[in-house]
Write a structure and sequence with these properties.
Layout (H helix, E strand, L loop, with lengths): L7 H18 L10 H7 L2 E6 L2 E7 H6 L4 H8 L39 H5 L5 E2 L5 E2 L2 H4 L4
Length: about 140
């Protein structure tokens, strides 16, 4: 996270410099961050990861407008919105598993409200979604979500 420890105004200056260099030199960046505001402002394509596994991949506008994976939905619901009187924050249940001993199947199944037995047994693969993105979720694949 190259800008995480910087003051907000300095962050903006660094991001603007990176975007200027990107445009003038045709650069591509792999930018790793937890700051969703930076992702929405700076990113063109986003991969959302949970415990080291990609759960969703899409262009930034599509991902922020219509997240498909339950973890992405919960993550984006945590972004504060000034215009909301009552935020629609998804509260995940359960504990985050240890990365040293990952659970079988989908690594998110212990916290997912849509998980079933297949989720506990089988690792989901990335599948294409409408809009050109990809999601690794049995519930989406089976039409349960």
């Amino acid at each position: 996270e190259p800008i995480s420890a910087l003051d907000v105004s300095i962050q903006a200056q660094v991001l603007n410099l990176l975007m200027d260099a990107q445009e003038s030199r045709g650069l591509t960046y792999l930018f790793i961050t937890h700051d969703l505001a930076v992702v929405e402002h700076f990113g063109t394509r986003v991969a959302v990861m949970y415990l080291g596994r990609v759960c969703e991949l899409a262009d930034t506008k599509t991902l922020f407008a219509t997240p498909r994976h339950p973890y992405t939905q919960a993550l984006l619901s945590a972004i504060p919105k000034l215009e909301d009187d009552r935020p629609n924050h998804i509260r995940l249940q359960g504990e985050v598993p240890t990365p040293v001993n990952l659970p079988s199947g989908c690594v998110f199944h212990g916290r997912c409200p849509y998980a079933n037995e297949r989720c506990r047994q089988e690792v989901p693969q990335l599948i294409a979604t409408d809009g050109g993105g990809q999601v690794a979720c049995h519930a989406v694949e089976e039409g349960r979500l």
